[in-house]
Amino acid sequence: MKIILAAPRGFCAGVNMAIDSLELTLQKFGPPVYVYHEIVHNQYVVNTFSEKGAVFVNAIDEIPKDSVVLFSAHGVSPAIRQEAKDRNLTALDATCPLVTKVHLEAIKYAKAGYTIILIGHEGHDEVIGTMGEAPEAIVLVEDEDGVEALQVADESKLAYLTQTTLSVDDAEKIIRKIRERFPGIESPPKGDICYATQNRQEAVRLLSGQADVVVVLGSQNSSNSQRLRELADDGIKKAFLVDGPEDLDTANFSDTDTVLITAGASAPEFVVQSTIAWLVERFGATVELASIREESVQFPLPKLLRAFAAETRSS
Ligand code: SF4
User: Binding of isopentenyl diphosphate: at which residues (predicted)?
Assistant: First the structure.
C-alpha cells in the first residue's frame, strides 16, 4: 500500500486562532467557559475541551448570568451579541476574520438597499450568523433550483455572497446560473470561499486521480470536510469521511491500494497520524508527502486575550 499524504490539510488559520482562544480563555478565567456552538466542527476538539471545562451551548439563555462566553469560529448574529450583553456575560469573539468579512459585506449591501443572495447551506452556524446581520435583506440559495425559484423585487440592486466553506465547483455553477438570471448582479471583488477551503479542495482535485481510496479526516457536521469527500467521490473510487481510524474498516482497503489522505480545516493532525499508523500496521503502507502549496496565514487573537497571551508566553 502507498499513502499519498496531501498538503495543505487540516487546521487553517481561523481554527488555530479559535482553538488558541479557547485554551487561553480557560487559563485566564478558569472553567467553566461557555462556548456558543461548537468551537469548530470537530468531535475530538469538542470532546477535549469539554474535559477541560468548556461547556458548549446552542442558546445564550443556557448560560448563567455573569459568566464568560466565547463565540465560535463560525460567527454570530448581532441578536446573539445583544443577548449575551443582556445576560451580563463577558463575551470573547473567536469568529474567523474571513467570516467577519462576509458579515461586513452583508451589512454594506443591506445598508445600500440591496437584496443579497447568500449561497450556502441552510442551518449551518455560519449561514445563521451571516443572515442575522440583515435578515430582511438576505435570501438563502442552496442550489441551482433555488436560483430558478428566486423572486426579487428590484433587480437593479442585487448582490450575492457565499458561505466560506462551499465546494468551489458547486458555487461556480450556482453563480453562473445567478448571473444568467440577473446579469447586472454585484459581488465583492474577491470571492468569499476562503483560502483554506480552496487549497484543500485543489489538493484533492490534483491528487485523487492517483488514488484507489480517499480518506478525509473530519467530522460529519464539518462543511469543508464534507465537500472534500464529495470531491473525491467520483463514483468509482471509494471516499470516506471519518473522525479517526476507529471508523475505518479493513475490508475497504487492500495491500496494493494507493490511499490519498487529507483532513478538513477543523481536523487535528494527530488523527491524521493515527490513521497513517493504522494503515501502516495493517497493510505495511509507505507514505509519500504531496504538497501543492505552502500556507502561512495567521489571524490575531481576540483583543481581550492578546495581553494575557503575551504574558503567558514570556513567563
Ligand atoms: S475554514 Fe476558512 S473561513 Fe473557516 S475558519 Fe478556516 S480560514 Fe476561516
Answer: 41, 74, 124, 222-224, 266
